[in-house]
Amino acid sequence: MRNLYLFIVVIVLSCGDHNQNNEMVSADATLVSVPNEKEMNHLLPPPPPNEESQKESEPQPIPKKIIKKGRLEIEVGDINKSQKTILENLKKTNAYNEGEFFSNSEEQEMLKMTIRVPNQNFDALMQSFGNDLGNVISKNVGSEDVTEEYTDVTIRLENKLTYLEKYRELVKKSTSTKDILEIQEKIRGLEEEIESSKGRLKFIDDRVKYSTLELTLIKNKPRNSVTSKLGFGSQFTDSVAEGWNNFVGFILGLISFWPFLLIIPIVIFVIRKWRKRKMEAKQ
Question: Which superkingdom does the taxonomy of this entry point to (predicted)?
Fold first, then answer.
């Protein structure tokens, strides 16, 4: 009987230990349970930014925008010969003649040329003209830094393009006719401003890439009435007209002094009368 009792006690204790071990294992499993994917994403630090996306987000610096321009006036012996030399120099420097103006008077022949030359060849072209053509009368070279203006226009253009896309999205979502018309009017205004900004940037790029040179060639003619194209009769008529104009100018000049012409006789009269009275008083 006693042995039976001991056997039952042993069995009960064995069952209790087994349940306790199961509870400990369950508790340990709960403590080491793996979190789900969302919890992992929340716990892990954010991934480092992609180098390419970071480079794209950073604004790219705009290179210097420098506009070179110059004026050159040269006295030459032969306009046609000098023009041929100029055209040869233009080919060497990849420049071109944008326009020209020629005039021929009694005193001189004059040829004005507007030349566009690549920025890097501007100085070389200026030196070639000074050495090959003739006597340099005047020379003026300058530069203008338009980097700030170019940057400002670029930033404004990007902002306008962003607003334009937003307005176009609003048009698709709008249901009111009034709202659609108002948005379309804003879109039209933005498109005009965008085209103007693009045109300004294109103009600056062109002026930066190609410098502008205003070149003037002058050939002075000797003043000789014998070699003049005008005949004696024309010169005589011009001389008479010039003399008459000088005479009329002289008379008009005298008339402009009429207050002095009026005051001077009065002053002389007063002085004479005063002297006369002084002499009578002495006698």
Answer: Bacteria
d(CA 258, CA 156): 65
Is the pTM higher than 0.85? The answer reads no
Dihedral class, residue 75 (left if φ above 0, else alpha if ψ from -120 to 50, else beta): beta
User: How are strands ordered across the β-sheet holding 135-145?
Assistant: 96-104, 108-118, 210-220, 66-75, 135-145
Helix and strand element counts for the chain (H, E): 9, 5
* Burial of 213 (C-beta count, 10 Å sphere; 0-12/13-18/19+): buried
3-state SS class at 144: strand
CB 214 within 8 A of CB 72: yes
d(CA 34, CA 208): 65
Q: Which residues pair with 102 in a beta bridge?
A: 111
Q: What is the pLDDT of residues 72-114, one digit of tens each?
A: 999 998 999 989 989 988 999 999 999 999 999 888 899 999 9
Indicate if the alpha-carbon torsion angle 232, 233, 234, 238 is positive or negative. positive
State phi, psi for 199 to the nearest 5 degrees: -65, -40
Q: How far apart are CA 18 and CA 229, in angstroms?
A: 136
